[in-house]
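Budget justification aside, the reviewers requested a transparent look at the raw inputs and outputs of the sequence design task funded under Objective 1. We therefore reproduce one unedited record. The lines immediately below are the structure tokens for a 499-residue chain.
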């Protein structure tokens, strides 16, 4: 029995993750790498260290397996960019990470110049330094990177692919390309207009290939066994959507992490932009029902800035818990918050509000409020924020959500998932395999190499660990949500008046 290995290049570490033909994990290795903060608001990575960690973890994992490796898949932190020399393979600057804010003033200038409607219509994104374009512009104007025939620019997946193939292949795929703010998600090609506006030479960008298909094979110079196909690539959140088998329009997943990312499959027609949401390419794969022609699916995405970070605040800021695992039992020790609401807008609000001036707000506190009420308010805020995003997606797409598929650290909390089911009025499903990001990349690669014949096989592999159905009185649920929205309004714009 062959295995597929996903190379999961995250923001703080890399993971090599192997699955068998049943989609069951059979081994993994993990290694962290250094975070560099050269100035306030700047975040950089040494991509040679990332590459070394990929080789080390993958070699260790392969040495522990007694099955052949059918293929590698890659999933990666999105929006992070790196520039390197094609002749030498040497990085020309440390990678600028998605969290980096050095392009904020430039984005403000471009909004004032009227570029936002073009960005929204072409890329599905908003003008924000979160995305790659202003990072690349900075590398070329202030970072010492010179344009020329030997310049290569790409996201982390393309850097890994270049090294895996010994410098033979400079490519990416549409889900990663769609996060650069340089990619036309309608034509599925680099936008000459936006590349020109940001001063990015088209010849330096990678070729855009399908997410599932053979990109190349490992080269002996990679430090890994040669000849292994690299056959699937996707950005981390799109990969999780694929790993959760969200293949039909309306199928939706949420990853509860430090923040949360809600993605809804909206089908193979590029939708019009929806206020408060991002439009992104989900994946491009061969469609077995259309003779293997490439089908591209799109997704609405809602980014929630603070979910797990609010639990960290309970632990490290207020010190009302000693361990994050205490949150669920403490919150469950009371039946309600007694009308206490917490809006965790520590750094503003993300989707669907996109309000950078919102700030954390706690309302309804009385002398009877206890730490248990605060813990429950934090848990409920996770569910309320997710409902706000899902409601916007439902209205914007016309697709009803019939269930929510969840993963991430906080999804282990049964109370959260029950509250979430009550708020959405649909079942919430937690899978047995929680590493859905790596699983998605493995599935994309395995599809290309015949390990799985079609997405139907992947759906068959999916096993639900627990399902939570709506059980609360809908009128009470809606009343509570209205009170939450009042609290949100109190939080909004709070920092706008600061000098």
């Amino acid at each position: 029995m062959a295995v597929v290995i996903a190379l999961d290049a995250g923001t703080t570490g890399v993971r090599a993750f192997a699955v068998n033909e049943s989609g069951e994990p059979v081994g993994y290795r993990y290694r962290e790498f250094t975070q560099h903060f050269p100035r306030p608001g700047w975040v950089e990575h040494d991509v040679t260290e990332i590459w070394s960690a990929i080789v080390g973890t993958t070699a260790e994992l392969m040495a522990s397996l007694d099955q052949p490796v059918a293929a590698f898949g890659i999933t990666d932190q999105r929006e992070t960019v790196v520039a390197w020399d094609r002749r030498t393979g040497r990085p020309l600057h440390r990678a600028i990470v998605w969290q980096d804010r050095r392009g904020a003033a430039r984005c403000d200038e471009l909004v004032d110049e009227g570029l936002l409607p073009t960005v929204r219509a072409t890329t599905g994104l908003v003008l924000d330094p979160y995305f790659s374009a202003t990072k690349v512009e900075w590398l070329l104007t202030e970072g010492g990177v010179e344009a020329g025939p030997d310049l290569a620019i790409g996201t982390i997946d393309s850097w890994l692919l270049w090294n895996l193939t010994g410098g033979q292949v400079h490519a990416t795929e549409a889900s990663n390309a769609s996060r650069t703010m340089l990619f036309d998600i309608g034509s599925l090609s680099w936008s000459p207009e936006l590349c020109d506006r940001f001063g990015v030479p088209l010849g330096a960008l990678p070729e855009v290939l399908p997410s599932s298909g053979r990109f190349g094979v490992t080269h002996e110079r990679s430090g890994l066994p040669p000849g292994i196909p690299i056959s699937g690539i996707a950005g981390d959140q799109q990969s999780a959507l694929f790993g959760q088998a969200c293949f039909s329009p309306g199928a939706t997943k949420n990853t509860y992490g430090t923040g949360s990312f809600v993605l809804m499959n909206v089908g193979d027609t590029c939708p019009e932009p929806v206020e408060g949401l991002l439009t992104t390419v989900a994946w491009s794969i061969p469609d077995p029902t259309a003779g293997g022609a490439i089908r591209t699916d799109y997704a609405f995405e809602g980014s929630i800035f603070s979910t797990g970070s609010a639990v960290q605040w309970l632990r490290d800021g207020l010190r009302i818990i000693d361990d994050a695992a205490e949150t669920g039992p403490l919150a469950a020790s009371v039946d309600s918050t007694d009308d206490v609401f917490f809006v965790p807008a520590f750094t503003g609000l993300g989707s669907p509000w996109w309000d950078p001036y919102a700030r954390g707000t706690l309302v309804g506190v009385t002398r009877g409020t206890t730490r248990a009420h605060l813990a429950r308010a934090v848990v409920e805020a996770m569910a309320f924020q997710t409902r706000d995003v899902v409601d916007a997606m439902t209205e914007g797409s016309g697709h009803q959500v019939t269930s929510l598929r969840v993963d991430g650290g906080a999804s282990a909390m049964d109370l959260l998932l029950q509250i979430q089911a009550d708020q959405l009025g649909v079942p919430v499903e937690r899978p047995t395999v929680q590493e859905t990001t790596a699983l998605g990349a493995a599935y994309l690669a395995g599809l290309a190499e015949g390990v799985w014949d079609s997405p139907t096989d992947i759906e068959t592999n999916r096993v639900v660990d627990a399902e939570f159905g709506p059980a609360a009185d809908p009128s009470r649920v809606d009343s509570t949500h209205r009170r939450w929205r009042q609290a949100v309004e109190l939080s909004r714009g709070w920092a706008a008046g600061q000098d």
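DSSP finds 15 helices and 23 strands in the chain. The mean pLDDT is 92. Computational costs for records of this kind are itemized in the attached budget.
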